[in-house]
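Z., the sequence and structure:
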Amino acid sequence: MSSTVKFVQGNEACVEGALYAGLEFFAGYPITPSTEIAEHLAARLPRQGGKFIQMEDEIASMCAIIGASLTGCKVMTATSGPGFSLKQEALGYAVMAEIPCVVVSVMRGGPSTGLPTHVSQGDVNQARWGTHGDHAIICMTASNNQDVFATTVEAFNLAETYRTPVILLFDEVVGHMREKLEMPEPGAVPLVGRLRTSVKDGVNYHPYLPREDGRLPMSDFGGVHRYNVTGLFHDMWGFPTDNPTVVRELLRHLVDKIDNNAAQICKYKEFHLEDAECVLISYGSSARSALHLVEERRALGDKLGLLELQTLWPFPEAVVREKCSRAKHVVVVEMNMGQVMAQVKLAVDKPGRVYLVNRYDGVFITPNDIMNILRLIQGKGV
């Protein structure tokens, strides 16, 4: 496979992935450390026939991509911590109305405006629980530019497949780190297009009636079919209802379409897990430090391994349980106060052997930070 090699920031790799996936509409509001995504798309997207619009705020940006998606476009917005918070109400609307869209959050320290130019991985729980009510969500991440590109393409594919919002969580280091990106040829990576209804004009169209395979064909809003879209619980025509049976079945559908396909959705990487006595679990830029340490200590005979999570939600519980089943220690490496560690403890058979190596002061976690805690865990002193 021939390819074009670029030297780009992680935010630019996200732009390249979105354009490769067929992005047609972007709405956003600049906010550090995600601003480069909007900047590059402002220059690139119109040249490819797409639409770029800078909205007055993050709420309007999220609402704009929802509307554009309903008309049949592949859509994306990008933001950072406080902006991600503002998007949550409309994000829940997209979950309820089953509107495909991609939402990027390049994480910075928080809460509130926090640390705009410093690294953090503090939005993991916000991605899962930021909007209200019971719901499922897909959230992915990456540790290098090649994976940022691939994960962005995958996010568009998942959004169209499951007719749902997909969140991309990159941390500030990944977003601003500049490294090689090999661009695949057009067509080399499979793309999922919008599944449109075959119901003809003048025939009753049910926008919320799944096919046998669970997918819901869409009709471009403003086209030949007239139908209702609402954030209220609704029937197969899209009209509001409080019928308990319909409410229960719709909520079950929204959750099951993602949870029942977790094995296909969840992506991960593993390094030296075949005989690992100590398994490190990490994601994003933290995983780079963890991998550096694993390779370094392997050369000295330490049986360390790394499980790098690329899907954070749905949480890959079965994968974590299986990969950690033979380990004496499980160590979660992340730049928050233990948001993924809490999920790992729920997943493994022996949660008392799960430890946390973390930083939450806006400073990148290093291999030495991890090694210092490992020595304590292994009883080797500092």
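The mean pLDDT is 96. The first strand starts at residue 3 and ends at 9.

Let me know what you think.
H.
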